[in-house]
Amino acid sequence: MHIHFLGHPEKEAIGLYLPGWIEWLLQQGKSIGIGALLAPLLDTKLRDRVTVFQDECELVRQGDLLITLGGDGTILLAARLMGAGNVPILGVKFGGLGFLADVAPEEFKDAFREVSQGHALKQQRMVLEGRVINSKGQECKRAFALNEFVVLREHRAHVIRISVWVDEQPVCTYIADGLIIATPTGSTAYSMAAGGPLMVPMLQSIVLTPICPHSLTQRPLVISDRSQVRVETAEDESGLLIVSADGQELDTLSRGRGLLVKKADHTITLLQRAGRTYFDVLRAKLNWGDDIRQKNDG
């Protein structure tokens, strides 16, 4: 079994755990690969017993199991690098909220045993494909997003006007600070912060969430995952718009250019510990469903 680790050593705690985990896995006859940024955390003898990858794309695509060390951003990075490879991902949380990466370092060995024994839960998470096209319909840029695509004004001091179609049917022109096009996985990220609904990860839907809409009638909209969304600048919008995919700038939109977003042909496999449900994570990470009246008494 080839086990690869992806992470960045800005979290000092990673260096406290990683060498021991690798030694433990090597004793079980596992083959280990790590990214070049993690290599300095190992002593020379241990480093000689693992494969160090200079190319992170190769690292995430060539193993049987990818273990991410960090927060949710590391999982988003892994998904972006992996593309259609679909190597199962086990996220170990070092700092931050850790909504996707919900395995604590102290739980790693137990979580790995569950994975190796086939007891871990496998969740196939929807991915979005986004393409920026020019006025002739030619593709300029393409990217994939596990969480969301976002359209924002280059200079964010003013609202923007963006026209949206679903399956070539006109929806509306949003007057807002921006627009989020999110997966169910991304519904607990930027979309939730902008007032979008929480969506169970296995739900086959896409949510359009305007950011601070100027009109109270412009609310989040949930559509089928079989639909395609087209976004363009409105006729009276003169500003330059920025398109991002999972927080990474992709391209710009101006008059004559558009963004097409649809469900990708591939999914990302996230591993979760047996017995831990989505609602457990909601309650633990977001205090979802708590009775704030009791907390405020006295």
Protein model, in words:
The protein has 298 residues and is an alpha+beta fold. It has two domains: 2-120 and 273-292, Rossmann fold, CATH 3.40.50; 127-265, Probable inorganic polyphosphate/atp-NAD kinase, domain 2 (Tumour Suppressor Smad4, Sandwich). The chain has helices at 12-27, 44-47, 56-62, 72-82, 108-116, 190-193, 278-286, 292-296; strands spanning 2-7, 31-35, 51-53, 65-70, 89-93, 121-133, 139-145, 148-153, 160-166, 169-176, 178-182, 205-211, 221-224, 229-233, 241-245, 248-253, 258-272. Strands 7-6-17-14-9-10 form a six-stranded antiparallel β-sheet, covered by helices on one side. A six-stranded antiparallel β-sheet has the order 13-12-11-8-15-16, with no helix packed on it. Strand 15 and strand 16 (248-253) form a beta hairpin. The longest helix is centred in the N-terminal third of the chain and has 16 residues, at 12-27. The N and C termini lie far apart (55 Å).
Can you lay out the helices and strands and say which pair or pack?
Elements: E1 2-7, H1 12-27, E2 31-35, H2 44-47, E3 51-53, H3 56-62, E4 65-70, H4 72-82, E5 89-93, H5 108-116, E6 121-133, E7 139-145, E8 148-153, E9 160-166, E10 169-176, E11 178-182, H6 190-193, E12 205-211, E13 221-224, E14 229-233, E15 241-245, E16 248-253, E17 258-272, H7 278-286, H8 292-296
Parallel strand pairs: 1-2, 1-4, 2-3, 4-5
Antiparallel strand pairs: 6-7, 6-17, 8-11, 8-15, 9-10, 9-14, 11-12, 12-13, 14-17, 15-16
